[in-house]
Amino acid sequence: MESTQDKPCGKVIVIGGGIGGIQCALDLADTGFYVYLLEKSHTLGGIMAQLDKTFPTNDCSTCMFSPKLVQVADHANIEIVPLSRLLDLQGEPGRFTARVEKKPRYINEEKCITCGQCAEKCPKKVPDEFNGGLGKRKAAFLTFPQAVPLKYALDPETCLYLTKKKCGLCKEICPTQAIEFDQKPEIITLDAGAVVVSTGFELALTA
After folding, report:
1. pLDDT above 50 (res 8)
2. pLDDT value of position 57
3. What is the 3-state secondary structure (H, E, C) of the chain?
4. Strand order of the sheet with strand 84-92?
5. pLDDT, average across residues 85-96
6. Is residue 86 part of a domain?
7. Which position among 37, 59, 126, 199 has the lowest Cβ density within 10 Å, counted as fewest Cβ atoms?
8. Are residues 142 and 72 in the same domain?
C-alpha cells in the first residue's frame, strides 16, 4: 500500500502574478488543483495591467484582463500570496517544499476596507511607477482601481513614519485600525506537487 508521504501533492505553486501566471493559475484551479499564486508586488497584473491596447488586434487590455482578475480573486482553489518571493525549493516532482518570504504591507488586509482615507491624508507624494512616473501617488496607496487584492499598502521607502518616525496620520484616522507599522517580513513554508515559473518580462530600450 502506498504511504501518504509517497503520494504526489495536489497543490501547485505559480510564481508570477502577471497575465501568464493568472491564466495558468485559473487553468490549474479549474481542473481541481489548489494553487498558491505568488507575486512580488502588492497586486496582481504585471505589465498587462499597465497597458491600454494590445498588439496586433488593438483590443482593450483592461476589458480582457479585468474579468480574469475577478475570477482569480473569487476562485476557491486559488490562494493569492502578494509581496512574496521564493527563497528556497527542495524536493522532486510530485512533492516540493518551498520557503517563501512574505514582505509586510503595513496595512492589515483583513481590516482594510479600502476607504482610501490613509491615502487622502498622507502628505508624502512620490512618482507613480505604475503610470511610468507621469503622475504622483501617496506613500499610502492603491496600485490601481481594479487591484487584486483590493487593499491599500504603505511604501516603506517613502512613508515618513517608516523612514523617519514622523507623521503617523494614516494610523490616527484609519476607521478600522488597519495600519500596522510594526509588521515584519515572515517566512512561510508551502508544499506543492509542481512549480510553474511565470515571472514575466521587463521593458527594454532597444534603440
Report:
1. yes
2. 87
3. CCCHHHCCCCEEEEECCCHHHHHHHHHHHHCCCEEEEECCCCCCCHHHHHCCEECCCCEEHHHHHHHHHHHHHHCCCEEEECCEEEEEEEEECCEEEEEEEECCCCECCCCCCCCCHHHHHCCCEEECHHHCCCCEEECEECCCCCCCCCCCEECCCCCHHHHHCCCCHHHHHCCCCCECCCCCCEEEEEEECEEEECCCCCCCCCC
4. 84-92, 95-102, 186-192
5. 96
6. yes
7. 59
8. no
pTM to 2 decimal places? 0.90
**Cα(123)–Cα(121) distance, rounded to whole angstroms?**
6
pLDDT of residue 62: 85
137 within domain boundaries: yes
Q: What nine digits make up the cell of 140? A: 499610502
| Domain co-membership, 93 together with 129 | no
- Cα-Cα-Cα-Cα torsion 93, 95, 97, 102, nearest 10 degrees, comes to 80
Enter the C-alpha cell of residue 38. 505568488
Where in the sequence is the domain holding 149, given as residue range(s)? 117-173
User: Do 128 and 55 fall within a single domain?
Assistant: no
Task: Please check whether residue 204 lies inside any domain of the structure.
Answer: no
Contact of 37 with 21, CB cutoff 8 Å: yes
CATH of the domain at 85: 3.50.50.60
Q: How many domains does the chain have?
A: 2
* In a shared domain, residues 192 and 166: no
